[in-house]
Specification:
Belongs to the UPP synthase family. With 145 residues, the chain is of the alpha/beta class. The protein has helices spanning 14-27, 43-59, 70-76, 124-135; strands at 2-6, 34-38, 89-91, 111-113.
Length: 145
């Protein structure tokens, strides 16, 4: 299984950062399953770091400002480590009906499912309920019908 870590690494102790780098390096060539672990991750931070990266590239003449588009932004986000960076289904447990600063850019066209069950109690039956609900959705991706 390939393992990737996303989030703000500036506050992570060096000893843990070393383990993170070793794990990512050791699993980078694995295919099939991909586990992404979010540590100190926020959607706002992700978008901000992507914007800063694009601004720096433009300032250094590597890209032209007018060439910046959604695809270029996607490549700067932390989820660019994944083959499928935009979730089709976002499950927010505990009955809260908010996405809590998580995948703000990536969830633009995600179906949002809000079960009342708490995360520790979210088991096979709850996954089945979520997937059944998702199968009944008519996905339009922002298009009018």
């Amino acid at each position: 299984m390939k393992i990737s870590f996303i989030g703000n690494r500036t506050k992570i102790p060096q000893s843990l950062l070393s383990l993170i780098r070793e794990t990512e390096e050791a699993t980078k060539s694995y295919e099939g399953k991909h586990l992404i672990i979010a540590i100190d991750y926020s959607g706002k931070f992700d978008i901000l770091q992507a914007c800063k990266s694009l601004a720096k590239k433009a300032k250094n003449g590597l890209i032209q400002v007018e060439d910046i588009d959604e695809g270029m932004m996607d490549k700067e986000l932390m989820t660019n480590c994944s083959e499928f960076p935009n979730p089709d289904l976002l499950i927010r447990t505990s009955g809260e009906q908010r996405i809590s600063n998580f995948f703000l850019w990536q969830s633009a066209y995600s179906e949002l499912y809000f079960p009342n069950v708490l995360w520790p109690d979210f088991g096979n039956a709850e996954y089945l309920d979520a997937f059944t609900w998702y199968q009944q959705r008519q996905r339009r991706f922002g298009r009018r019908i």
